[in-house]
Amino acid sequence: MQRAHTIADLRALAARRLPKAVFDFIDGGAEDERTLRDNVEAFESWMLMPRVGVDVGTRDLSRSILGCRASLPLMMAPTGLAGFFWPDGEVAGAQAAARAGIPYCLSTNSVASIEQVAAGVPEGERWFQLYFLRDREWMRALLCRAVAARYRVLCLTVDLAVQGRRERDLRNAFTMPLRPRLSTALDLARRPAWLAGAARSRLGFGNFAVAGPGFTSVAQHVASLFDPSANWDDIGRIRDQWRGPMALKGLLHPADAERAVSLGIEAVIVSNHGGRQLDDVPAAITALPDVAEAVAGRAEIILDGGVRRGTDVIKALALGATACSLGRPFLWGLSAGGTEGVSRTIEICRSELDNAMTLLGTPNLDAITRDHVRMRRDAR
Ligand code: FNR
């Protein structure tokens, strides 16, 4: 793990350990994957503008995120199926987050249940991510379980009325567990470490009572259980039911951010679901400045999508984000080495961010301002 020096190194390690269909499920996006690529590349449209003569002898990288003092301006994005990538993957990820002092958000679509993750990692800042389900009673029950298991923040994801068309998954016929096919069997023969872990794991969607039909694709799971008819009234009702802080995840339009603020939602997560839902929507970093202007400090803003470098985090903060949320970088670390792999992801982010802040002349996160970034003249 110590030989991984960048997030890209961890991705390469994950590609070696995981079956191709599983790696593609993590790595891929919707349709032509234009938004997926743009999420990363759009950071290049922004340059950093350093200042000199600032005392950067000591640095403070900590940040308050919805009332929790995090050691870094980062959180682990909710990602389904983590237990399919590494045995007890959700617990492994939550452990690394707790050790590092950053928030961990558990997905509705986790393999481990709400209670299993809470029991496995009793300390640490836990958020629970909820989707709109057709079965509103089940949704309410999930909320009650999250309260009972002491998840502090609710993250309601609103960009998955149906699943985006993820063509890698269609081509690979990706299901959990993997459907036996000759190509899969040949691939698995080269992945003994992953296979041994998967064989030991109890696979399924741990927060749902109904077991899938054996080999379940995520698209089937979403189509049968998720509710595409949910609207702002429903969002308002969830806001009323949840007593603690709440974040709304998956918006890009400033007017939607305004609406969220007017409902008393404390944080908006500017996100296109990592390019996995509607293709051709703006990169998260591109959408951020308008959302920040609309929100005007009335809610916290979390930037989610394409963050791969410490310098990306600085750009997001300079453009109005309180913190960044990372999905694939943590899953690559998890797939490469469980808790140690996720810890390595966090360590790489911390060391890149610290180095960049020192060279930029910003000893703490409050010192990072809009004046520290410039749009490139030749930006697309
Ligand atoms: C996700 N994402 C996601 N989001 C969510 O709200 N609930 C979920 O269950 C999942 N599941 C999921 C699985 C996988 C494999 C990935 C890669 C992503 C989206 C995730 O929270 C986040 O928005 C993106 O991953 C951010 O983009 P990056 O950091 O991966 O570029």
UniProtKB/TrEMBL annotation:
The FMN hydroxy acid dehydrogenase domain, residue ranges: 1-378
Gene Ontology MF terms in the entry: FMN binding; L-lactate dehydrogenase (NAD+) activity
UniProt entry keywords in alphabetical sequence: Flavoprotein, FMN, Oxidoreductase
Active site, renumbered: H273
Gene Ontology CC entries for this record: plasma membrane
GO annotation, biological process: aerobic respiration
UniProt xrefs under Pfam families: FMN_dh
Needed cofactors: FMN
Residue numbers binding glyoxylate: Y131, R166, H273, R276
Positions with a binding annotation for FMN: 78-80, 107, 129, 157, 249, 271, 304-308, 327-328
Gene3D superfamilies in the record: Aldolase class I (3.20.20.70)
Protein family per UniProt: Belongs to the FMN-dependent alpha-hydroxy acid dehydrogenase family.
PANTHER family the UniProt entry points to: 2-HYDROXYACID OXIDASE 1 (PTHR10578:SF107), S -2-HYDROXY-ACID OXIDASE-RELATED (PTHR10578)
Name the record gives this protein: FMN hydroxy acid dehydrogenase domain-containing protein
Species in which this protein is naturally found: Methylobacterium aquaticum
Origin organism lineage: Bacteria, Pseudomonadati, Pseudomonadota, Alphaproteobacteria, Hyphomicrobiales
